[in-house]
Design a protein that fits this description.
This protein has 477 residues and is an alpha/beta fold. It has 23 helices and 9 strands. The strands form 2 sheets. A 6-stranded parallel sheet has the order 4-6-7-8-5-9, with helices on both faces. It is globular, with a radius of gyration of 27 Å. Bound molecules: adenosine-5'-diphosphate (ADP) and magnesium ion. Adenosine-5'-diphosphate binds next to helix 9, helix 14 and helix 16.
């Protein structure tokens, strides 16, 4: 007899259970619960969980042996590692949820044709992107298309689909924070995915300039390696060109790079804060080169676009944190109305609101949104530094999640940021030690010790002093 649900196991059909051993369907049914138990009960960090465990699935059950596999094909040779490190936890999680003793095994995925097909592509992929890293979230899929940016989006997509064939160069301009870098990365991702044989170079013009300066400094009159590097490519994406305009030597070198690639029908994409005609110090010959392809501009988004972008960002944050964030449209529209021009600030406001809700452990509502956006909506009001704000900035600086700073964990990588939060809260807020005790859920002595430890380190160690200076700058008091 087949067991269809957990109630069968617990209830009247227990007798059948003894014969049928453990039901695969039951395990599959409750798999999300098992993973959740695993994630929350064994102090597994989010990164480790997402990398090793999230994609585990039930493959088969034989008597009391549960056979698992990973649906992530890149896991391949790491199965032994997963077994050794997490095997006991996984076994325990399954036993807790289904209330039966079991054994586990983790095996490779079926020899899926997809997997063999994917590996060579990944190898090509890493070697065909040169220059700077891409942000994995900056893809066409994550780019919200609306009236104000649809032309730029269409042009970028066209270029990505057929590099060098349509608009060359594609020149995208617009104010900061409107999506230029996002679109450039999207083009690169798209080509890497669809035409992985092409060599793509993504750099900012600053990097281009620094590399040129380095090449010249190392003695070569004609920096041959530099030229070779920038010419032996199929697609050049150069971000924020404005930094090199007016810098004669760099501009000159860029002109030659541009001509070389252009003549060879290689795709060039340029971004800038201004159209070519608005640069007073742009050499005429370079201006006419820039203008010979397609010049498109990104303008500030309208309300509906801002709402759609906020929803998209929220979706990404939920996916990445694996937590459902309850933010209703009223709150989103408050943010969209308050922030008029810059999409980066729009996202910053959402991040701040979520952080504030975590620190205060309160739901995300309009009151909290008003608090989070106070500095942005009323920029002229004197800034009040709250402990939440300090924790938020310190968390970002050290890349330690807010939850961990506020947790009871004693690992060194958490303790130092936590003590720095205590120190800064004492210095820049009017909170008493009792208030700090409540915020950090620590006793009096621990708070005082934390503050004193940072004071001592600042005196004795230049690095700590520099770190604190940098964080204070970020606090922008
Ligand atoms: P720029 O390079 O123009 O200064 P970015 O490309 O860095 O701006 O964009 C700033 C932020 O706004 C990024 O987080 C980006 O993902 C987001 N963004 C901009 N436009 C859009 C859009 N249409 N859809 C989704 N996110 C967007
Ligand atoms: Mg940019």
């Amino acid at each position: 007899m087949k067991l269809d649900s957990y109630s069968d196991v617990c209830g009247k059909e227990t007798a059948a259970f003894e014969n049928a051993a453990i039901s695969k369907e039951l395990l599959i049914d409750r798999w999300d619960e098992i993973l959740e138990f695993l994630r929350t009960q064994f102090n597994i960090t989010k990164v480790s969980f997402n990398t090793w465990l999230k994609n585990l699935k039930v493959k088969d059950v034989r008597d009391d042996l549960v056979i698992l596999f990973s649906s992530d094909p890149s896991i391949g040779s790491n199965l032994t590692f997963i077994k050794n490190k997490y095997g006991a936890f996984i076994k325990n999680a399954i036993e807790e949820i289904i209330d039966e003793e079991i054994n586990i095994d983790i095996v490779g995925d079926e020899p899926a044709p997809e997997r063999t097909a994917r590996l060579p592509e990944q190898t090509v992929r890493s070697s065909s992107l040169l220059g700077l890293k891409l942000n994995p979230d900056y893809t066409f899929d994550n780019f919200v298309v609306s009236g104000s940016n649809s032309l730029v989006h269409a042009a970028a997509l066209k270029v990505a689909e057929a590099p060098g064939e349509y608009y060359n160069p594609l020149y995208i301009y617009g104010d900061p924070g409107l999506g230029k870098t996002h679109l450039m990365h999207s083009i690169a991702h798209f080509i890497l995915e669809n035409t992985p044989s092409l060599k793509i170079m993504y750099v900012t013009s600053e990097v281009f300039m620094n590399e040129l300066v380095e090449a010249i400094r190392h003695g070569s009159v004609a920096p041959a390696d530099f030229r070779e590097k920038y010419r032996n490519i199929d697609v050049l994406l150069i971000d924020d060109i404005q930094f090199i305009i007016g810098k004669d030597r760099t501009q000159e070198e860029f002109f030659h790079t541009f001509n070389y690639l252009y003549e060879a029908k290689k795709q060039i994409v340029i971004s800038s804060d201004k159209p070519p005609r608005d640069f007073n110090n742009l050499e005429e010959r370079l201006r006419s080169r820039f203008e010979c392809g397609l010049t498109v501009d990104l303008t500030a988004p309208d309300f509906e676009t801002k709402m759609a972008i906020l929803q998209k960002k929220l979706e990404i944050k939920e996916y990445e944190s694996n937590i459902k964030l309850n933010v209703d449209d009223e709150v989103l529209s408050y943010i969209a109305e308050s922030i008029t021009t810059n999409i980066r600030s729009l996202e910053g406001a959402l991040t701040k609101l979520i952080a504030l809700s975590r620190i205060k452990r309160t739901p995300i509502n309009i009151e909290l949104a008003e608090e989070a956006l106070r500095d942005i909506v009323f920029p002229n009001q004197k800034k009040t530094i709250s402990p939440e704000y300090i924790i938020d900035i310190v968390s970002e600086h050290f890349s330690v999640p807010v939850e961990e700073i506020l947790s009871t964990k004693r690992d060194k990588y958490i303790v130092i940021p936590r003590q720095i939060c205590m120190f800064l809260a004492r210095r820049y807020t009017s909170l008493s030690t009792i208030d700090l005790e409540k915020i950090f859920k620590r006793d009096h002595a621990t708070i005082l010790h934390g503050i004193a430890a940072v004071e001592k380190k600042i005196k004795n160690d230049d690095e700590t002093e520099k770190t604190i200076d940098t964080i204070v700058k970020k606090l922008n008091i």
